[in-house]
Design brief:
The complex is a heterodimer.
Chain A lengths: L26 H21 L9 H19 L2 H20 L1 H11 L2 H8 L6 H28 L6 H29 L3 H17 L12 H9 L1 H15 L4 H27 L2
Helix pairs in contact in A: 1-6, 2-3, 2-6, 3-6, 3-7, 3-8, 3-10, 4-7, 4-8, 6-7, 7-10, 7-11, 10-11
Chain B lengths: L1 H18 L6 E12 L2 E12 L3 E5 L6 H8 L7 E6 L2 E2 L4 H5 L2 E4 L11 H11 L4 H14 L15 H12 L6 E5 L7 H16 L3 E6 L2 H7 L2 E6 L2 E6 L1 H8 L3 E6 L5 H12 L4 E2 L5 E5 L4 H12 L4 E7 L3 H9 L7 H10 L1
Classes of the chains: A mainly alpha, B alpha/beta.
Chain lengths: 278, 348
């Protein structure tokens, strides 16, 4: 019995704080929360390096495969195919890399730690925007690995440092914007596995039925129409103009406009359906 | 135990005075709380009032709706119908305000498996508005308090069940919430860790926290709670202090094993004389069990046995089990059908 008196020796240690509450999360707090959750995502990436396979090994494999196999058939020689191919693969790999965002969110949501996020007074967008911010590193890595592989195979971009940087930047922005589609899928799908399937259905037509790998002129008419409205084609063309010639063409505008439209539609959808799951 | 309670009360009073709030402040007020999953009314019109500074226990078997009720109060599940207020804030309409006032520790550790203990606490501190430095200091402080300093830099995957629970509870205390929800804080813990957890919870109480805890164990509710609500099939079947409930439930019993099984019959008869009841022989044949009208009768029985030189090998006093509680309160045995257990599992 006497032992219980020890419990009162530190009465001020955990005293309920003064109860003033805020009605909503201020923007500054939201940014801190996003940054903290981005940090969490980066730490997790570092501790599970196998997550990087799709942004390291895959781009090398794709670049080498397409370069050596189709170079002669499509453009006459590997050297003349590379300026067409490398920007295409850069766009393709970053776009493919963003599929993982939805799968990971879904897996994360099934874990106990998301219950805690839900019980905390934090901005509803933070658990989504945090990992999205960390993923910028993945897209940049995918774009750089592809570019490096291309250069090793003989690709010589003539757009200058600024053009190359702008090309890589556009690829990253595209990956980040399209990833919101998969974040939304992540919040509505039943399981991580089903997201994988649905994402492939969306990703393959978008990335392959574009001008990424072949000159559009060789395609049948109906397919040409699709490739022309496919936003990935605009991104590929924009990156080609930036990296190969260092010119900012209207394609950059279309690409950015497409990205902005995706973000404007899918960010609210994702946040709303994430909050609904409460 | 009694001593700890009275300490807690006096402290809670001084704390309330310090804040200038009325002594009868209400922490949780729920009316007709209801949640339906398909055709199953998991929570079926529960009323609940938890006063500030008290430990309120929600006692019930698996599938009774305890977790569902708690999740609704903690804004983790939408409320189908009914009303709930936490410190005067409507849970349905002011979820964000409510989340600033509560700490939630679930049945399953809600910490990040890939981060270390210290990283977890730092992250939750940052998310709740602490500066990076303060968050580190708070993390270290909580790790010390919860005896996790040695494990601070280890990944959670290497933690034992008890360590996870402690870390989980620590994570709920970062912002010193006024109200803490504990969902079955000791389910699945070994007896030693369980006792440690009880000590931790008592410390919180001594420091003026209001606690709403769910449990399947009568002894846990008895040890920790000031008042208890018994829940069955989503409905409240009884409410009161542990003593009030125990008075309703009935009596404890003394179970004795004898050193020589040949003595059993004589010993059982003697115990029957002392307590004026009938002793029941145990299945093994070397012991008996007898109901006690009062705890002191246990000593009377043992002394009588000693006087007659009937040597015992062991003796235990058994509290009424939860099954007996349910028998007493609902008039039928508690039954947890498989379907119910499954819905409970899929919910969590």
């Amino acid at each position: 019995m006497s032992a219980t008196t020890a419990t009162t020796t530190a009465p001020d240690a955990i005293r309920p704080a003064a109860r003033t509450v805020q009605a909503s999360v201020p923007v500054r707090d939201t940014l801190v929360q996003i940054r903290s959750l981005a940090w969490r995502a980066l730490v997790k990436m570092r501790r599970n390096p196998e997550q990087f396979i799709d942004v390291t090994a895959m781009p090398v494999l794709l670049t080498a495969m397409f370069g050596f196999m189709f170079g002669g058939a499509i453009a006459g020689s590997r050297a003349s195919y590379l300026p067409l191919l490398i920007p295409g693969i850069i766009a393709q790999t970053t776009v493919t890399a963003c599929v993982a965002a939805g799968v990971q969110l879904r897996e994360d949501m099934e874990k106990g730690v998301f219950d805690r996020f839900r019980s905390l007074p934090i901005a509803r967008i933070a658990p989504l925007a945090g990992p999205m911010t960390a993923d910028l590193a993945r897209y940049l890595l995918a774009a750089c690995v592809t570019l490096t592989t291309g250069v090793l195979m003989g690709y010589r971009p003539h757009g200058g440092a600024a053009g190359i940087a702008a090309g890589l930047g556009l690829a990253v922005v595209t990956g980040w914007s399209l990833a919101w589609i998969f974040m939304w899928l992540g919040t509505v799908a039943k399981s991580a596995r089903s997201i994988q399937g649905m994402s492939m259905m969306i990703m393959f037509p978008l990335s392959f039925l574009s001008n990424a790998l072949v000159p559009v002129g060789t395609l049948p008419g109906w397919l040409q129409t699709f490739t022309k409205i496919n936003p990935v084609s605009h991104v590929v063309s924009a990156i080609r103009d930036l990296m190969n010639n260092g010119t900012v063409t209207a394609q950059v505008g279309w690409a950015l406009l497409g990205c902005a439209a995706v973000v404007a539609i899918f960010v609210p959808l994702a946040v709303r359906s994430y909050s609904r799951r409460l | 135990m009694r001593r700890a309670r009275s300490n807690r009360e006096s402290h809670a009073e001084s704390h309330i005075e310090g804040q200038g709030a009325p002594a009868s402040a209400i922490a949780v007020e729920a009316r007709g709380l209801t949640k339906t999953f398909g055709v199953n009314r998991a929570v079926d019109g529960i009323d609940l009032t938890v006063r500030e500074g008290e430990v309120f226990g929600v006692l019930g078997p698996n599938g009774a709706g305890k977790t569902t009720m708690l999740q609704m109060l903690a804004t983790l599940l939408p409320i189908d119908s009914g009303q709930a207020m936490i410190f005067g804030h409507d849970v349905r309409r002011e979820g964000h305000a409510v989340r600033q006032l509560i700490g939630v520790t679930g049945q399953y550790a809600s910490v990040d498996e890939d981060l270390t203990a210290r990283e977890n606490l730092w992250l939750f501190g940052r998310l709740q508005g602490l500066a990076s430095k303060t968050a580190h200091a708070t993390a270290d402080d909580l790790l010390t308090r919860f005896d996790l300093t040695e494990a601070a830099h280890r990944p959670i995957s290497q933690f034992s069940g008890g360590m996870r629970r402690r870390l989980d509870l620590a994570a709920s205390l970062i912002t010193k919430p006024a109200l803490i929800f504990l969902d079955e804080p000791t389910t699945g813990l070994d007896p030693r860790t369980r006792t440690q957890m009880w000590g931790t919870i008592r410390d919180l109480v001594a420091q003026g926290c209001t606690i709403l805890l769910t449990t399947q164990y009568l002894d846990e509710a008895d040890e920790l709670a000031d008042r208890i609500a018994v829940i069955d099939h989503g409905r409240k079947v009884a409410e009161g202090t542990p003593d009030q409930l125990k008075a309703q439930i009935g009596t404890s019993s003394l179970r004795v094993n004898l050193a020589q099984s040949t003595d059993t019959e004589a010993a059982a008869a003697l115990a029957g004389e002392v307590t004026r009841d009938t002793a029941v022989r145990t299945a093994s044949g070397s012991g008996f069990s007898i109901k006690l009208g009062h705890a002191n009768q246990a000593a009377d029985v043992l002394i009588a046995l000693r006087d007659r030189r009937l040597d015992i090998s062991d003796a235990t006093i058994e509290q009424p089990s939860l099954d007996e509680v349910f028998m007493a309160l609902t008039g039928r045995p508690r039954h947890t059908s498989e379907a119910e257990t499954e819905t409970e599992a899929s919910r969590s």
